[in-house]
From TrEMBL, chains A, B:
<keyword id="KW-0234">DNA repair</keyword>
<dbReference type="InterPro" id="IPR034137">
    <property type="entry name" value="TOPRIM_RecR"/>
</dbReference>
<keyword id="KW-0233">DNA recombination</keyword>
<dbReference type="InterPro" id="IPR015967">
    <property type="entry name" value="Rcmb_RecR_Znf"/>
</dbReference>
<dbReference type="Pfam" id="PF02132">
    <property type="entry name" value="RecR_ZnF"/>
</dbReference>
<feature type="domain" description="Toprim">
    <location>
        <begin position="81"/>
        <end position="176"/>
    </location>
</feature>
<dbReference type="Pfam" id="PF13662">
    <property type="entry name" value="Toprim_4"/>
</dbReference>
<keyword id="KW-0863">Zinc-finger</keyword>
<comment type="function">
    <text>May play a role in DNA repair. It seems to be involved in an RecBC-independent recombinational process of DNA repair. It may act with RecF and RecO.</text>
</comment>
<dbReference type="Pfam" id="PF21176">
    <property type="entry name" value="RecR_HhH"/>
</dbReference>
<keyword id="KW-0479">Metal-binding</keyword>
<keyword id="KW-0227">DNA damage</keyword>
<dbReference type="InterPro" id="IPR023627">
    <property type="entry name" value="Rcmb_RecR"/>
</dbReference>
<dbReference type="InterPro" id="IPR000093">
    <property type="entry name" value="DNA_Rcmb_RecR"/>
</dbReference>
<dbReference type="Pfam" id="PF21175">
    <property type="entry name" value="RecR_C"/>
</dbReference>
<dbReference type="InterPro" id="IPR006171">
    <property type="entry name" value="TOPRIM_dom"/>
</dbReference>
<comment type="similarity">
    <text>Belongs to the RecR family.</text>
</comment>
Length: 205, 205
């Protein structure tokens, strides 16, 4: 792309570094900003800068937070003895939206993925193991994506926790509610048969 | 969406004001920025702010430019007597990419669209008419989108230019190169028959 303006080119270049945004989309977004009042661009730039410089990670669960201890960890009504291990804040938001979980979280910040150069030391696995060894946790629920990386991460943490006698579980894998059986893949269907639940339980929700 | 952080919520809110970016995408983009070095966010914010505050419109053609007169208008090799009227900088870039045009441009900054509250006074139509009346232009080429708004804008400008005796033309409408005839719509096909060109001309490119 040939730009008539260096300023425009720079803005488009920076914008197109975002995932899923190519040069054309970046140009569309930047031209949109140019048509809007100057305040909108200022607010966007300020919000991004402020977020990047002032955001904290909760010292207990490593969730994104404005304060030293996040809202969930500082809520006395939550059960701190049950810890749900998730990848990032989006998973926390998804589980919170169900309204079914009253325990704490532990945000790893990613999954073990040698292909992307992410090893266990880059994730907050050590603090989790220490929390368990300090005897503060009764149950760990693994809620990572059901992918190779997710399973590897689960297994790595499971191995680290060996000998602590802690209760571990993973969220149930099975056919999505509302899904047709014939379109389910074999692995999911297989697991959903192996891990079948008493019929009474299925009526609880 | 329930956010655990006000800073995060603000950044997502601002980001989701951009066209085609919903809350979920905004969250994904913002979380991506959080994982990248702080410098990337700073550069993005700085580029946007700089663009919005320092960008100029070329005083002759109203194209986006870093200087008082844009690169095209200040190029002595371009034919200033032919002016191609376009909607915005993207159209300038598209026509420049063809390498077929050596004249000047006039960027309107939009199309007349009562539905969006855009009237002739919000576009740079007056300076174009003045330029023509000053006798500096020999031919006007209308290159707006072939929509109701585009045609309305063309016609409005055409009416404003009445009596000046200026030569006006529009870019050719017809079947796209490489397109199957049977899938073309009737209006396009009809126009391409009415405005047929001598066969020798079609072999020039």
């Amino acid at each position: 792309m040939d730009f008539s303006s260096k300023l425009l080119e720079q803005a488009v270049d920076e914008m197109s570094q975002l995932p899923g945004i190519g040069k054309r989309t970046a140009l569309r977004l930047v031209l949109h900003l140019l048509k809007q009042p100057e305040a909108q661009t200022e607010q966007l730039a300020a919000a991004l800068t402020k977020l990047r410089t002032e955001i904290k990670l909760c010292s207990n669960c490593f969730n994104i937070s404005d304060t030293e201890l996040c809202e969930i960890c500082s809520n006395p009504n939550r059960i701190s003895e049950i810890v749900c291990v998730v990848e990032d804040i989006r998973d926390v938001m998804a589980i919170e939206n169900t309204g079914q979980y009253r325990g704490h979280y532990h945000v790893l910040g990613g999954k073990i993925s040698p292909m992307d150069g992410i090893g266990p030391s880059q994730l907050s696995i050590k603090p989790l193991v220490e929390k368990v060894k300090a005897g503060k946790v009764e149950e760990i629920i693994f809620a990572l994506s059901s992918t190779l990386e997710g399973d590897t991460t689960n297994f790595y943490i499971f191995k680290q926790l060996e000998g602590t006698g802690i209760k571990t579980s993973t969220i149930a894998r099975g056919i999505s509610v509302g899904d047709e059986l014939e379109y389910a893949d074999e692995v999911t269907l297989g697991r959903s048969i192996t891990n079948r639940v008493p019929f009474e339980n299925s009526m609880k929700n």
